Each structure stands twice: as C-alpha cells, then as structure tokens.
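Write out the 3D structure for:
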Amino acid sequence: MSDNTTQDQQHEQEITFRQTLQVFARLVSYFGYFKARIFAKLGFMTFEHVLRILLLPWPLKIVVDHVILGEPIAADGSGFPSYMEPLMFFLSDKTAQEIMSWILVVGIMMVIFMGMTLNRGAGRKETGRYTGAAAGSLGAATAELAQGHDTATQTENAANAAGSEMGGILGILDFNVHMRLSQSMNHLLRSELAEHIKSLPMTTLDDQRIGDSVYRVIYDTTSASGIYQALTLGLYGGLLMVALTLYVMFTSFGSAPEVIVVGVLVGPLTFLFVIPFARLARDKSQASRLAGSETTSNIEEGMANVLAVQSLGGNKRESDRFAKASADSFRKFRAEALIKLLFGHAGSMAFLIGQIVFFLVIAGYVIDGTFTAGDYFVLFYYFFVLSAVFFSFGFLYTELQGFIAGLARVFRLLDLPSERFTDGINIPVIERGVEMRDVAMTYPDGRVALKNINFTAQLGEIVALVGPTGAGKTSLAYLIPSFLQASSGTVSIDGVDIKDIAVPSLRKQIAYVFQETQLFSDSIAENIRYGNNSASIAEVREAAKTAGADDFIMALPDGYETNLGTVTSKLSVGQKQRISIARGLLKKSKILILDEPTSALDPETEAYLVDALHKAATEKLVVIIAHRLSTITHADSIYFLEEGQILESGTHQELMARQDGRYRQYVDLQAGQN
C-alpha cells in the first residue's frame, strides 16, 4: 500500500463532531424522497406506543387485585387512570370469573389486530431501539436472514431491515411499510453511489481502488437505514414512550414522587456509564471498515492479476499479502466488538443499579399500603419502560458512531467531482474534425504528460500516433473524448472548444477501442452492438467480418448468442480484441480511436483490418495508436511523439525522407529488432 493511500485512510478515520452533524443533515435530506412511508411508519409506531403504554399494564393490575385477591372494583375507577373509568365502571359489578373472561376477550382481540399479550418477556435490545415487556417483542412482526459476525450477512439484513412493534394484522402492514422504506432508501443510495463512481474522471478512477469502491457501495451504504431507524424509530419512539410513561406515573402515582425520580435517574446514570465509549466506537468502526475494504481490494487485485501471479510464482506472496490484510480486518473487528461488549456491560450495570434502588423504594410503599400488589407490577412495568428506553438511548448514541463512520465514507466518495455530464452544449453531427492548439496536460500528481501539442485531424483521414512507450500517445488520444482535460491550450471539435460541449453529446460521436479489451458478461452480439443497440444482427455480422471476427464466432456452439461470461477465458487475446474492434466499428460515430488495435492480430487479419479502416475513413476520422509499422505506413498523417511532445508529423514517406529524423530512427530501430 502506498504512503498516500495510508495517509488517506488515516484521514478517513478522523471524523469530527462537526462532520458527524453534517452527515446527519445530509442524510435527512434523503428522507424527503420517502415522506409518505416515513409518516406511515411513524403513525403505526405512535398508535402502538400509545396503546402499549396507556393500556397494556393495567389488565395485569385488574387480574392481581380484583381477580386473584378478590378486591372489589370501585365504580368511579379510583386507582386507575381517568381514561379507564368507563371500563372500570363496566367491570365494577362483575364477578371475578366474568372479569377474567372480559380480560381474555380483550386480549384475544389485541392479539388478532396487534399481537399484544400480557405475558411479554423482559425485553430485548435491537439496533437503535428497544422492544420487550417494557417495549414489546412477543408476537411482533420481524423477519431477517441468518446472521453471523461477518459483514456480508449483517449488510444484507441491514439493507432489508424491517420490523414492527406490533404483530397481528396491523403488524404485518407496519412491517411491509418499513421493509419497502428500507429497501428503497438503500437502493437509492447504492444506485446513486454506483452511478457516481462511473462518472468519475479517469484520473480519479486511477487513484480509487476497485475493492474499496465495491465495499462502500455494498456495505457502507446500509448505514443509512441504520441511522434512519436510530433517529426516527429509536429517538422518536423512545421519547414518545418516556413522555407517555411519565404522564401515567405522575397522574396515577404522583403521591410517591420518589418512585418517579428513581425511574428518571436511570437515564443520566446510563449515559454516565456509556458516553465514554462513544468516540471509541466511532473510531473502531471506521478502522474496521477500512480494514474490510482493504481485504476486498486484495481479493479483487489478486483475481484481476491471477495470470501474472501464477506465471511469476507469486502465489505465496499473494497468499501472505491477503492473510495479512485478513488478519488485520479480524483484529480491527475484534477491537470494535470489544468496545460494544464493554458498552453493553456498562449499560447493564447502570440498569441493575437502578433496578435494585427502584425495588427497594417501591417495596416499601406496597408494604405500608400506599400501593396495592397490582400497582407493584404496573410500576415495575413502567420502570422497565424507562430503563429500557434510556438504555437504548445510550446504545443508540454509541451505535450511531459506527453508522456515521460508514455513511461518511459513502459521502466522501459521492463528493469526489464527476465529469461534466450535464453542462455544455449539444453539438450537431461532426463535419470537419479535431484541432489542438498549444495544448499541455499535467496529471494531478504533477506528472507532465503533454506539452506544446499542435494537432489537426479531419474526417476522411487516418491519423496515426507513434512513439516510444510513455511518449504521451494515449494521453493525447484521451483528450479527444474528454477522458482527460487539457491543463492549458484548446482542444476543439469543428471549431467548438470541448470544454463547452456536454460530455454525452461529445462521446456519442466518438468510438474508443481501448488497448485492454473491455467485454461484458453478455452474448457476443450484445457486446458488439453495445454502442449501437438498434443494430440488426446483419449489421453486427458485417462489423464482425470487417474486424476479422466472424469466422471464429460462427465456429462457437452458440455463434453470436454465445455468452462471454462463460467462455471469455477460452477466447484468445486476439479474438477478444477483434470483438472489441467490431464494437467500435459498429457504433455510429464520426471519430474512431483505436489504441494498439493490431497488437494481438496475426499479419493476415491485420492487413484485412487495415483495409477495412481505410474504407471506414471515407466518412470517419480514424485515429490509430500503434507501434507496428504495417498498421500505420498508409496513414494520411503520422505524428511522432516523445516525452510528451510532437517532434515530427507528416506521411510515412515524408518522415522517412528526413535523414536524421526521429521517426526514421524509430523505424530503423524497429526494423533492426525484427
């Protein structure tokens, strides 16, 4: 790994509080796309929380005090909240058996519609929120894949995160709304990031590791749904539950303020225990993600260069390199897991201390008769609500640090400047050609690629760029479709500066055949018509014939329908190159640029292709980057480059007539090598 890469990763680990707030604000702007679903989810939550807090614990008091202990129910509903007075008046003249029957009827209806029952467990913690007896989990609508500690399964669950505090009919509806919301949000962010990566300038893409980009698209984007749940479900739901709980406790148990105070103090006690872990959690999560992306990059690089690895005997070296990255990833993950474990223990300690104090306080009031036995269970329910919510707030704050780390990586990549896809004018069909005047080009790292370039190429010509390796031939060709931008000087198409031309309008009329063959996992026919989707199969075959590819394609079992995803590795380099050339020929473009188009072709196929290019040049400008003289001797113009400058230009005969010319020396040297 380079020093620059290491420094960039160290910089990424440093997320300030201000940057954290900026990430929050930026994510909230995405919520606007899903307002209807968010309000629907919040509506379901509000309805469920109100019923759970205001109604759920009181049937337990009725059963304990008036069914088990047999105490009469006051007709005025004393001992119960005012909103329950109608129900208590209805039950006041009923026997214990009748009261129990009505409680069962109500319970069954709640199970059918909401999944709520009286025998919920003590509760369980979920990301950013709390469910259980204090918050309700039994019968709640939840679903997820089998999950381990690996990022892959956790990410799939995060991308499809959904749940409902309810069960029954309403729980299913709530769950469906939540799942569609999570999937849509993650799909939007993933698609936006993937599209942005494809729009980055080539100089940026050269510096961006593919494995790291994949990691951010697949794994880091799911932090959005985690933050959404933390902010809307965890924060809003928790605050609503606290408000409702305190309302009931003040109105029904205000005679014993100590009970309320103890319940509320669990909040600051929990934060006191867990806040020290917040910064650590964020830093460790960022480091874990960076280590994970490094492992992904190692896999990608090893697979992409597998032939070099095998041919140079580098298997052991690559295995050691991957093992080192993998071990570092596991080590960073263990550090993150340890912080979460310590946080959990700290929160549990605060919860346990609060529970002991609360038990001692409430037990005294039950013993002296201030509260009934049923009140004890109701109060303990509300204490669990407060404790669970405050604990979830502490967990939420710490867990958010990990989500922030992931989303910050996403936004950093999104903030890289893209090419000018929408700016500029749409040019008509190119009629004249390309002109460069006093052009220079310097890469971002300071390397000078081109200087003092003056270049003219017209439609109907074949123009060749020749010179030793590193002379700047490809850099010059990249200026024409605006893959690279000139640092100074002017590059124009039909007299229009390409800086003023919209990128899609420019590239629509330019076909570029790269030196490294770029083929897709699709049929050969679809690969050839990639730049011209409307082309008929007859046109596809004609282009393939011109490129010398038709014979070997027809010899394949499925011909032009052969899927390259299954046989690409079985095609020779020359065969792949011919398919790529056919694709460039088929595109309806006025400028065709070929980078070393004959490097992997046999002499017969090369001669056939050269003749085809001369035919194509009757209505196109053909620019060829080549070393082999047989490809370029019949070009209309040859530009010889060295060290980023055009030293000579002219036809082959004109350049060879110069006794001390650099082109002639280059040709003689190549002839001597042959």
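The chain has three domains: 3-56+116-414, 419-509+589-674, 521-588.
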